[in-house]
Design goal:
The protein is α/β, with parallel strands linked by helices and 452 residues long. It contains 15 helices and 19 strands. The protein has two domains: 115 residues, Urease, subunit C, domain 1; 294 residues, Metal-dependent hydrolases (TIM Barrel). Helices cover 36% and strands 23% of the residues. Strand 11, helix 5 and strand 12 form a beta-alpha-beta unit. The protein is globular.
Length: 452
């Protein structure tokens, strides 16, 4: 990365000669391209023809692959605290005894762990994460300070979470009033902050952790505020059985009845769904936060191709324990093919690449500003180092990225026109301090969980 020679700058930043995968159907791939950035906006994306224009900074794109920033529509950054352990227990941490729970986490621990998760995500090429857990009034600005786009919310629920891992579902409207009130206060304080990089959603935790009346209140709040709703849907047999017992319906049927099963819903997992559920979800146009690696680790698979065929928008998300969206594209491709038992033209690398980019932007209501390298959109760019043995030969650039790429191949990340990762290192944070503080927080939480 060099300073441009003395000349009148036409752009703040130019990336010259990179192989560009745009996620824009009008020009999906540019073998030797040029990207110009002025302020926070892409002012040129096209072939590198003629001499590079004058710019304040010039990045030599030789040996680099440029993509849009990856959009992770469902994650819990704080749950880095249970990585390497909870994956082998068979349930999400909130339902698992013996591991640290959200209600155990202090604000200081939450910030330490959330910053770790955000740092990992950004270094692996995510430019937006949709994050949910606890103490979000403190974690959201701390994550945003890294330069990342973050949409977040605390868990909205009226169940007493201290009993859920022990099999007790006790609902208390006072809890619901408190969690929903915090979400609304968060939105008033942060929605649109940091040049629009911060956002707030209504994170209804799950149908089984929200009473039926409280889910209705969340839908009314959505209509009043215009905020999107995110939830876990059909993520476990426990949830399905609980809703069947409580409401006499499937979780999808319940959300449809309440007016929540539509294109203003991001639904994570969607594993245990009937044929009728899939039809209803597709007809409603929900956004499915597909979690292929996390689900497969637990021995399950969401019926992604059937959901897409029904009309749902498929997106990608890491959920817990790791933040590598590049690896997830490969998992999504393989899981879909395992379900179909074949390879065909309807499920190829371009499909999972869209899930990680423009489809995620659609789910977040931001497809007009992010999700593709298109002139006029925000300058969210990831540059991968492809001058490495595992990327050669570059017969099919997208095929290489999906089949052999890793988040660790990211060299530079640009978000909102700002270089937030340069030569693999965060530019706006002390990585060593973040890792040390997160390690201390996780160890303290595990000690308390063991004593609970």
């Amino acid at each position: 990365m060099t300073e441009a020679p003395n000349a009148k700058p036409l752009a703040d930043l130019v990336i010259e000669g990179a192989h560009i995968l745009t996620s824009d159907p009008d020009q999906p791939e540019i073998a030797k391209g040029r990207i110009a950035v002025t302020g926070d906006t892409l002012t040129f994306v096209g072939p590198a023809e003629g001499p590079a224009p004058a710019a304040k900074r010039l990045i030599d794109g030789s040996g680099l692959m440029a993509t849009p920033g990856l959009v992770n529509v469902h994650t819990h950054a704080i749950l880095t605290m249970v990585r390497g352990v909870a994956e082998d227990m068979g349930f999400a941490p909130a339902y698992t005894p013996g591991v640290p729970q959200g209600h155990m986490v202090s604000p200081e621990e939450a910030v330490a762990l959330a910053r770790l998760g955000a740092l990992e995500a950004m270094k692996f090429g995510s430019t937006l994460i949709n994050d949910t857990y606890v103490h979000v009034d403190e974690t959201l600005p701390a994550q945003g300070a890294l330069g990342l786009r973050v949409t977040a919310c605390g868990r909205i629920h009226d169940v007493d979470f201290s009993g859920v891992s022990k099999g007790r579902w006790a609902y208390d409207m006072a809890i619901g009033k408190e969690t929903l009130g915090k979400a609304l206060a968060l939105a008033q304080r942060f929605h649109g902050a940091m040049n629009g990089r911060l956002g707030v959603q209504l994170a209804a935790h799950a149908p089984d952790t929200c009473s039926t009346d409280f889910l209705r209140t969340i839908r009314e709040t959505r209509d009043q505020t215009g905020l999107i709703v995110a939830t876990h849907l059909a993520q476990s047999r426990i949830e399905v059985e609980r809703i069947k017992e409580r409401d006499g319906k499937t979780p999808a049927e319940l959300l449809e009845e309440l007016g929540l099963l539509n294109n203003r819903l991001i639904a994570a997992h969607c594993i245990f769904m009937t044929d009728s559920d899939i039809e209803k979800a597709g007809k409603g146009g929900i956004h499915v936060a597909h979690i292929p690696k996390g689900n497969a680790t637990g021995g399950t698979m969401a019926p992604t191709l059937r959901l897409r065929g029904a009309g749902a928008n498929l997106c990608l998300s890491t959920d817990n324990m790791h933040a590598d969206m590049v690896e997830l594209m490969r998992w999504a491709l393989c899981v879909g093919r395992l379900q179909e038992g074949k390879i065909d033209d309807d499920w190829q690398p371009e499909d999972v690449f869209a899930m990680a980019t423009i489809n995620g932007a659609r789910a977040m209501g931001m497809a007009d500003s992010i999700g593709s390298l298109t002139q006029g959109k925000k300058a969210d760019i990831v540059l991968f180092d492809v001058a490495q043995p595992h990327f050669i030969p570059m017969t099919d650039a997208l095929g290489n990225l999906v089949h052999v790429g890793q988040g660790r191949d990211v060299r530079h990340v640009i978000i909102d026109g700002v270089i937030t990762v340069e030569n693999g290192r965060a530019t706006l944070a002390d990585e060593g301090a973040i890792m040390r503080e997160a390690e201390m927080a996780a160890r303290a939480l595990w000690r308390r969980a063991a004593a609970d």
